Amino acid sequence: MSRRPAHPARSLTAAAAALAAAGALTAAAAPAAAHAPAHPHQAARHVLLLSVDGLHQSDLAWYIARHPHSALARLTTGGVEYTHAATTNPSDSFPGMIAQVTGGDPGTTGVYYDDTYSSALLPAGTTRCAGARPGAEVDLTEDLDKNPDSLDAGQGLSGLPGSILQMTGDPARLLDPSKLPVDPKTCRPVYPHAYLRVNTVFEVARAAGLRTAWSDKHAAYDILNGPSGQGIQDLFTPEINSKALGYDAGDWTKDNAATQQYDGYKVEAVLNEIDGYDHGRTRKVGTPAVFGMNFQSVSTAQKLPSSDGLTGGYRAKGVPGPLVVKNLDFVDRQIDAFLTELGKRHLADSTTVILSSKHGQSPVDPEALTRIDDGPLLDGLNAAWKAAHPGAGDLVAHAVDDDAMLLWLTDRSASATAFAKAYLLARSGTGNDIDGRGRPFTASGLKDLYAGAGAARYFHARPGDSRVPDLVGVTQYGVVYTGGTSKIAEHGGAHADDLDVPLVVAGAATPRGVRVDGPVRTTQIAPTILRLLGLDARDLAAVRTEHTRALPVR
User: pLDDT per residue over 38-57, tens digit each?
Assistant: First the structure.
């Protein structure tokens, strides 16, 4: 997407020369340098990574066009903007975030969703592993917390929510081991960090003697520690799906004002880290080399029909409605606070800020919305399978359906996946539109459905891999699987609205006023972070496997 920045962007030829001189990012024509460390005197000392969940590149362009002097505009025009960046498919929070810090897609990292499945692990709670039948849900949500209803995930802090910054920086100890899947070889629970198949930028940075920190929405983001379990020294994870104290709506995502308050705790943590403290401002530890947070407020504004007296979602195709605009303003103020604090602490010249998103949100055209209750579809599939196979149990072992359909089956044979595919593509019915009126659908709301080996190839995974879904459905545009009318958008799918996210790299070791219109991917953030810090991106396993390159200028 093209736009007119506050300051004219330099030509791509001039930009490439400037960026090459900075030694931070790599042009496509220089493969030998794609992973090599930047020259030490050109490297950044700190990288601040920010994910604004749900944010599209089109949202950023829309906002900057109307607010040319905003913090978002200053950040974007003060660095390199990649206008055609894509996140992972599935476009869910966990694979999306993991991609940014590993350089790998789900087929490499082994993480397909925040609530996924493995045919190799044993169910949570298994204590007698010999002879136990494998096949287990791998839940990476609030359900793993010792107390999912508490903002501190069960730590037992008094004075919540105001005391939340006292929450531990080691949230793995707040996970209930009885809720974790079990490794059949050791008969021990598999913690999220051990489920990840590849290492992270946090682990590489720590091995180089650098400090690391991160803030996110569940204790299960322990997964970002990487297989060592030690990648992040200060991991702050207030539980977003806990009861929102002081609000009537439920958890912190059900009222947008609550979501902003929740995000504010993580903002405060990052400001403390910029000042050289731990997230709770209790110990002076030095500003981390790699740190940052995710924002949830834009995402809830896109998904809620209304909140705080404002209409959620988009007024028309690609035009943010009043609640989304309010939250773009909110994020802009927080980014301004970060930039201001970096300046006050004399860190602006040694810090690179990377802005992106774990995922987009679909649809951005409210008239395209078709809500479909997936429950009857899956119940019908199970019933049809048992009718055709007397004595058989349910065919669907696990399902995740937001604006895509991911199914794991109890029978992974070609005949079973073909049966499921044929059944789903033959289903029609009636969902509802943005106004709650009936809207017919065909083929279970699917445009394409990949089954068995085809599903594995879709994710560039090995057929038969224990984690890859057995069926992957790409929905018709506008389809969201949900019962009722409480949701107007979702993510997880493969539409442009899900995948097209912003990507900006600005600050130390980067040129100003550069726009790159060629396609890039958020997996390229990970090698770029290491290169900015003067480290070798080839220390990342996913970078070696997928040949992920640092961000290019063409």
Answer: 443 357 999 999 999 999 99
User: Are 343 and 335 contacting, i.e. CB atoms less than 8 angstroms apart?
Assistant: no
The answer to whether residues 218 and 140 touch, using CB atoms and an 8 Å cutoff, is yes
Q: What is the rounded CA–CA span in Å between residue 125 and residue 141?
A: 17
> Per-residue pLDDT tens for 199-233?
999 999 999 999 999 999 999 999 999 999 999 99
Tracing tokens 């290169």 back to the chain, one arrives at: 531
Q: How far is CA 467 from the centre of its chain?
A: 18
Handedness of CA 93, 89, 484, 308 (dihedral sign): positive
What element of type H or E holds 55? none
DSSP 8-state assignment for residue 72: H
Rounded to a whole number of angstroms, the CA Rg of the chain reads 23
What are the residues whose beta carbons fall under 8 Å from the beta carbon of 412, sequence distance 6 or more? 119, 452, 464, 470
Give SS3 for 286. coil
**Pairing of the two strands 479-481 and 370-372:** parallel
Beta-ladder partners of 243 = 251
Q: What letters, b where the CB count within 10 A reaches 16 and e where it falls short, cover 379-416? A: eebbebbeeeeeeeeebbbbbbbbbbbbbbbbbbeeeb
Q: How far apart are CA 137 and CA 114, in angstroms?
A: 10
DSSP labels for 250-271? SBTTSSHHHHHHHHHHHHHHHH
Please, which contacts does 8-14 make with residues 24 or more away whose CB atoms are closer than 8 Å?
Answer: 8/513, 9/77, 9/81, 9/513, 9/514, 9/515, 10/511, 10/513, 10/514, 12/514, 12/515, 12/516, 12/517, 12/553, 12/554
Return the C-alpha torsion angle 342, 326, 265, 158, nearest 10: 160
Question: How many Å is the maximal CA-CA distance in the chain?
Answer: 72
Model confidence, pTM: 0.93
Looking at residue 65, its amino acid is A
- Count CB neighbours of 544 within 10 A: 16
Q: Residue 277 is which amino acid?
A: Y
